[in-house]
Amino acid sequence: MTRLFLGMAILAGAVTGAAAQIVLTPPAAEAPPAPIPAAPPPAATPPPVESFTAPSAEAVPIPRPRPAAPTAIAAAEGGAAITGGGAAAAPEALPALPTPEVPTLPAAPAFSNADPLPPLPTDESIPALPGDMVAAPEEGAPEPLPAPDVVPDVPALSPAAAGPEEAVSDTNALPDIAPPPPAPGGPDLAYGAFQRGFYLTAFEIAIDKAQAGDVAAQTLIGLIYEGGYGVPQDFGKAFDWFKLAADAGDREAQFALGMIYMQGRGAAQDRAIGADYVEKAANQGQVDAMYNLGLLLLEGAVRERDPKRAAQLLAAAAESGTPDAQYALAQLYAQGLGVRKDDSLAVEWYASAARMGVVPAQVDYAVRLFNGTGVAKDEAAAAAWFERAAAAGDPIAQNRLARILAIGAGLPPDPVGAAKWHYLARSAGKQDEWLDTFVGGLSDAQRLAAAEAAQRWPAD
């Protein structure tokens, strides 16, 4: 489960934030009896997207047990106005219940409409998840993979040929994902037992076959030792079994062994050797290996930096249904990194990843829906996606939802709800001076109700 988390951290640094800012213009408030505080200054126009700078990754994650669990790629901070992502400051506790006082509502802040939040269908609730993932784009996409080809000894990937940004060279084409041939003896009883949680039974069935040279059984024994499934966890033994199977050509063992070398668990850390095994697995169509190799090519540390090749690998993984690869590919299209910049294609992949549960993708998708970037503007659908991501605990989504509820954009105005989500976002480190002023202008009863609701969350 941890093998994709570290990988996504690499991509988060590689494709720095490009989400557009939400522009929310609240209605004018009636003049209160007390003096109206000055409105905060308009949100600043975000600086132009800078060229990609690869981060220095600590490691690429180890493989997870089947089935895989989705992870998330962090989104970059956007500033005071609503954006698609951001890094939160140090957490702080929820606010204490306010002391009664007689506040006044602040004047409505003025925002420009320079940087419009990607849409969903205009349903009253969050749109139903589609049966199929968003289709891979045809125009401007990395070149599709060629027909399957048997590779006796998997060669190293060649660097991308020089060419225009929007094209990917034929010399970099990957082989199609080739599923392993069915076992000649019928179904694999060891894997069947493992998948049902009968780990000792799986071990007993697989160990004799592994010692006899069965590479699939060797990989399973390595997985059992690596995860401590029914036996004491032992990374050294896991390494030994993965090594046997990997050197015999098993793509799952090659990827697992690559992750062990990357993180130095069970063997001395050697990212160069780890990248070699990851690349071998990727050449055989192992989806997680293609995703992680794409990140390594964006990082440019143990492999020469090659955004075009990275985009091709991430596209192959995305088309195979990997939600993290879909989110990564969306960011490449949004930035124009390794592919031609295309907001419409970026929205399609953001939407697919969002529907598959990637919370940062839900935030970025909501941003583009709200602003009409690459998609028809739909504030109601954007608010629904912000609600979903806020309920999942994302502080950026909580902050944006608070602003939406404060001014009634896409949802009816709800000052108490706005204060509640502001308290929660602020406790997670997302500061917002405009919302501080707005909440300070609520009545004692409103702020008390909001504080109590924030303290009960997520129970209610």
Topology:
Elements: H1 3-14, H2 189-195, H3 199-211, H4 215-227, H5 235-247, H6 251-263, H7 271-283, H8 287-299, H9 307-319, H10 323-335, H11 343-355, H12 359-371, H13 379-391, H14 395-407, H15 415-427, H16 433-440, H17 444-456
Structure write-up:
- With 460 residues, the chain is mainly alpha-helical.
- The chain contains 17 helices and no strands.
- The longest helix is centred in the middle third of the chain and has 13 residues, at 199-211.
- Residues 1-6, 15-90, 97-139 and 144-180 have low confidence and may be disordered.
Main attributes?
single chain, 17 helices, disordered N terminus, 460 residues, mainly alpha, 0% strand
Characterize this entry briefly.
The chain has 460 residues and is mainly α. It has helices at 3-14, 189-195, 199-211, 215-227, 235-247, 251-263, 271-283, 287-299, 307-319, 323-335, 343-355, 359-371, 379-391, 395-407, 415-427, 433-440, 444-456.
